[in-house]
Amino acid sequence: GMWRFTMSIAGPDGQPIVIDDGYTQWHVDGTEIMNSGSHAPNTSNFCRGVWAQTGRGTYKLNHFPLAWDSSGTAPQGPVHLVANVKLTDHDHFSGPFTLDVYLWDGSEIVNASGPPIAHLAGTFSATRVTTSTDVPGAP
Prior knowledge:
This protein is an all-beta fold. The chain has no helices and nine strands. Strands 1-2-3-4-5-7-8-9 form an eight-stranded antiparallel beta barrel. A hairpin with a 5-residue loop joins strand 1 and strand 2. The chain is globular. The two termini are 25 Å apart.
């Protein structure tokens, strides 16, 4: 289905800081596509992943965004997102995620060089989008 998602990390005061939000579709064949709201189209705002059911109402997402500089012309390195989510009801899921950022090795856009240069951990949550879903914030 289609979901409105939010990824957040704990801020210095413990309050959540949203680091990304947008829309994601999880397809029946185990593939997934995400439209990241925090990235401009020229910096690669669409990315793909795969998912599998890991238990009753629980799922693992293995996702690979490609990062580009702010001009959208130079690769910044591969990113690896892993989320383990649980349906809280038919229309909501939530769970932990990790996001690792790697240096680009300079040969192919998807090749990483060395260990992650940044690591984030937080909460990935989503609400199902239906034919009656309104635009967020609309009256």
